[in-house]
Specification:
- The protein is α/β, with parallel strands linked by helices.
- The chain has 2 domains: 133 residues, Aspartate Aminotransferase, domain 1, CATH 3.90.1150; 266 residues, Aspartate Aminotransferase, domain 2.
- 37% of the residues lie in helices and 14% in strands.
- The strands form 4 sheets. A 7-stranded mixed sheet has the order 4-10-9-8-7-5-6, sandwiched between helices. Strands 11-12-15-14 form a 4-stranded antiparallel sheet. A two-stranded antiparallel ribbon has the order 1-2.
- A hairpin with a 2-residue loop joins strand 1 and strand 2.
- The protein starts with 6 loop residues before the first helix and ends with a helix.
């Protein structure tokens, strides 16, 4: 498509957008009584309007039924995670048996590492991207130490070539091949939080398995953003949060994927808990852990009913919209933002890959002079991106609630800023 930097063109794209109505299903933040242009869905997604009723339903059942809400509520708490499983599986391209919603992201990452990071004196290395989100860095560091290895020796961080901002797929694959005899696990982000680069998870998984290692991914910035196919890509495990693109509230619950080939592997160690025990005999309270089939067998404790109620409401929206449709709009919306930002090349640099397959909806920019001043200006003018030290502004036009006209208005604000 040939883009135009006009309000009429942007409005026309919004009028032709089959997903435009979904915006009305979200609360849009305001400043001085005006709706803001919200570009922080990569950090905290907006609240669906259906959330309040979803949470109130569980509050009412708690008030009326007390503990009997586990079995007699409208949505019995005993089985609550089941209400989310199939919907979440559609979002990440998995079979329902491969997905469970539980805990929080980093806790789930550590649980997965218990099962899948099984280092030996010869095979102990972890490959991850450099500048991964701090939680992943801390988790991998502590996992290496827990198993008696020095993190600097066990962890192989991958950085872009000099003068570049993102990793080349061929360099990732080359690193896997280089360390194949010592490699235990490749643990990458699906999308790098800082640059917005989407990694080729299929190619990385194939190379990892060819090296005799395990492939895992942190999908915090990928779930609800990319069109994922975790089952077909043969990924061993993945974890993600629900509060970014999945719009499920601050500190929201997390998702786990475990490929079905691991569903009933008795040789795979795990940290067991009550809620992962066989559902049919769970309340017999007997010794001897019998895991539920598939990812559900990794559960530890009772379902987090209120965060899950929020997440369930959001997942309904994703099912209605369709992840393929969202991704199609996202590619066009992000491309339009790239077009608008490219009008200001003398002032800023986009460090996110230009190819749609190598990014989600986030574009990260470095401003050549005083980026924080520009960030503050945008916030003062009804535009809410986010700032990451030392010099990156991240903008994420989310297909569920952002508009093409909003992208045009971002360009107008930038034009005013740089002219003055």
């Amino acid at each position: 498509m040939i883009f135009q930097n006009t309000r009429e063109f942007a409005k026309n794209l919004d009028q032709q957008d089959p997903l435009s109505g979904f915006r009305n299903q979200f609360h849009i933040p305001t400043l001085d009584g005006k709706k803001q242009i919200y570009l922080c869905g990569n950090s905290l997604g907006l609240q669906p309007k259906t959330v309040q009723n979803a949470v109130n339903q569980e509050l009412e059942d708690w008030a009326k039924l007390g503990v009997e809400g586990h079995f007699k509520g409208k949505n019995p708490w005993m089985y609550y995670h089941h209400f989310l499983t199939e919907k979440a599986a559609k979002v990440v391209g998995a079979k329902p048996i491969e997905v469970v919603i539980m805990n929080n992201l980093t806790a789930n990452l550590h649980l997965m590492m218990v099962s899948f990071y099984r280092p030996t004196p010869k095979r102990y290395k972890i490959i991850m991207e450099g500048n991964a989100f701090p939680s992943d860095q801390y988790a991998m560091e502590s996992q290496a130490k827990f198993h008696g290895f020095e993190p600097n020796e066990a962890i192989v961080e991958l950085f872009p070539r000099e003068g570049e901002h993102t990793l080349r797929t061929e360099d990732i694959l080359a690193a896997i091949a280089l360390h194949k005899n010592e490699l235990a696990i490749v643990m990458m982000g699906g999308v790098n939080y800082l640059t917005g680069q989407a990694f080729d998870m299929k190619a990385i998984t194939e190379a990892t398995h060819a090296a005799g290692a395990v492939a895992g991914f942190d999908l915090a910035h990928a779930a609800g953003n990319l069109h994922l196919e975790l089952h077909h890509w043969n990924v061993d495990f993945a974890v993600w949060c629900s509060y970014k693109y999945l719009n499920s509230g601050p500190g929201g619950t997390s998702g786990v994927f475990v490929h079905e080939r691991h569903a009933n592997n008795p040789n795979l160690p795990r940290f067991a808990g009550w809620w992962g025990h066989d559902e049919k005999s769970r309340f017999l309270m007997k010794k001897g852990f019998i895991p539920m089939e598939g990812a559900a067998g990794w559960q530890l404790s009772n379902a987090q009913i209120f965060p899950m109620a929020i997440h369930n409401a959001s997942l309904d929206i994703f099912v209605a919209a369709g992840i393929e449709n969202l991704r199609k709009k996202s590619e066009l919306l992000t491309a339009y933002l790239e077009f608008i930002l490219s009008q200001f090349k003398e002032h800023l640099t986009i460090i996110t890959p230009s190819n749609a397959k190598d990014r989600g909806c986030q574009l990260s920019i470095i401003v050549k002079e005083n980026g924080k001043k520009l960030f503050d200006y945008l916030e003062d003018n009804q535009i809410m991106p986010d700032w990451r030290e030392p010099n990156v502004i991240r903008m994420s036009p989310v297909p569920l609630y952002n508009q093409f006209e909003e992208v045009y208005l971002i360009g107008q604000a930038l034009d005013n800023y740089f002219k003055n």
